[in-house]
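Pipeline run #58 for the internal structure catalog. This entry was flagged by the ingest filter as a single-chain record with no existing model, so it goes straight to prediction. Upstream metadata was stripped on purpose; only the residue string is passed forward. Reviewer on rotation: M.T. Logging verbosity set to normal.
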Amino acid sequence: MVRVKICGLRREEDIEVCLKEGVDYLGFILYSKSPRYVDDQTRRKLLPKAEGVKKVAVMVNPSYEEVKSALDEGFDLVQLHGEEGPDLAKRIGFGRVIKAFRVRDRAEIPEVWKKAHAVLLDTYSKKAYGGTGRTFNWDLAKKVVEKGFRVILAGGLTPENVVSALEKVRPFGVDVSSGVETNPGVKDKLKIERFVREVKRWVSSKR
C-alpha cells in the first residue's frame, strides 16, 4: 500500500474531496511565511472536518512548546521541515514526527531518523522550504528507500508523473501540494481525484 498525503490545505471543500478519495494524510502549513499558511482561527474551523485521516502540522524550526501546542490542538503528526535535529524529535516522540529533508545532489539521511514515522524527501530550494513544484533526482530517493527508511516522496509530483515516481522509488508514500492546485492553497478537485486514482491503479497493478 502506498499512502497519499495532500499538503497545503486551506479550504473545507478541498478536505471533503480528499476524504472522499481516501487520502491518508492531510497537511496543514503552520509556517507563517508560506503562501499556504493557515492561521489559528482557520485551523479551528478545518481540523474537525478532517476526521478519519492523519492530520499533519507542517512546521519550520519550531520550539518544542510550539509543537506541543499543535499536537494538543488536534494534529496527529508534526512534519519538521527545517533544520531540526533528533533531540527535538526525541522529546516529541519519534513516532509522531515526519522529518523532511530537502534534496540537492545527495541524500544522506542519519540512521536515527529510521525511528521517525517517516522521512519526507523534497526538492531543495534557496527561496522556500517546500512547495516549489520541482522534482529532484529520484535515484537518490530510491537509495534512501533501499537503506530501509520509510520514505514519503515529495517535490513536483503531479497526476502525470506520479506513476513514474512510484515505479522508480517504491516509496512508503507520496506527497503533493502544488501539483493538484490552481493557486497556492486552492486545490483542483479533478487533479486530486486523478492523482489518487493513479496511485491506486499502480498499487493494484502490483498485486
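catalog note: The longest helix spans residues 189-205.
catalog note: Helices lie at 12-21, 40-46, 64-73, 86-92, 138-146, 162-169, 189-205.
status: ready for reviewer M.T.
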